[in-house]
Design a protein that fits this description.
The protein is about 70% helix and about 0% strand. It is mostly helical. Helix 4 packs across helix 6 (about 105-120) and helix 6 crosses helix 7 (about 125-145).
Length: about 200
């Protein structure tokens, strides 16, 4: 799995390499020395940038959020654009985002699960992880509310849980060899949204 660093900065290289190591080797494989070696940096470079393991995990979470934003692109979603029906906009947007994630960024999802599990054991990281997650939940809450939800918080929880469950099943679970098509994802989200918004 190649290290993808969109910019020349050493900070991005260290953060991207941390995500690669998490996906390839798991949490135990993420060390300062391993990042230096995998990134081709002089020994001690990662320690100079992130002194503690907590700091290294935090930059990985921050970079994960940046990389996920590039994949999910909330501003690109039809639900965020004018002229789209609320429900169909959400359906199209979520289906597009998930299909792109599942078909082109499975390694990023594995790193995401490693960090999510570690956050359950580290209160400081949990706080940091949750804060990055709000940047995706908040727009979704606004779209669901505009579409006519009578209980936006509960409906967003259901949508996020559905997305998380689907992604896990298709990357690490029993459906890892059968990624749904874009049309299948649209139909699933349409059924889910119709049930939520039924009067």
């Amino acid at each position: 799995m190649p290290v993808r660093s969109p910019g020349p900065s050493r900070a991005d290289l260290i953060a991207d390499t941390s995500l690669v190591l998490l996906a390839e080797r798991g949490m135990r494989g993420l060390t300062h020395r391993a990042v230096d070696e995998a990134a081709g940096l002089p020994q001690g470079s990662t320690s100079n940038h992130a002194r503690t393991r907590q700091a290294l995990l935090e930059i990985a979470v921050r970079r994960l959020a940046e990389r996920e934003a590039q994949v999910l692109m909330p501003d690109e979603m039809p639900a965020a654009q004018e002229g789209h029906d609320g429900v169909e906009g959400i359906v199209d947007g979520l289906a597009l985002a998930l299909h792109r994630y599942l078909t082109g960024h499975r390694d990023l999802l594995v790193a995401r699960y490693e960090l999510a599990l570690e956050a359950t054991r580290r209160p400081g990281l949990r706080e940091f992880y949750d804060a990055t997650g709000r940047r995706f939940r908040d727009p979704l809450t606004a779209w669901v509310t505009e579409a006519g939800s009578r209980d936006p918080a509960r409906h967003v929880l259901s949508l996020v849980a559905f997305c998380d469950g689907l992604m896990f099943a298709c990357v690490a679970g029993s459906f890892h060899a059968a990624v749904p098509t874009l049309d299948e994802l649209r139909e699933s989200f349409r059924e889910l949204m119709s049930g939520m918004l039924r009067r």
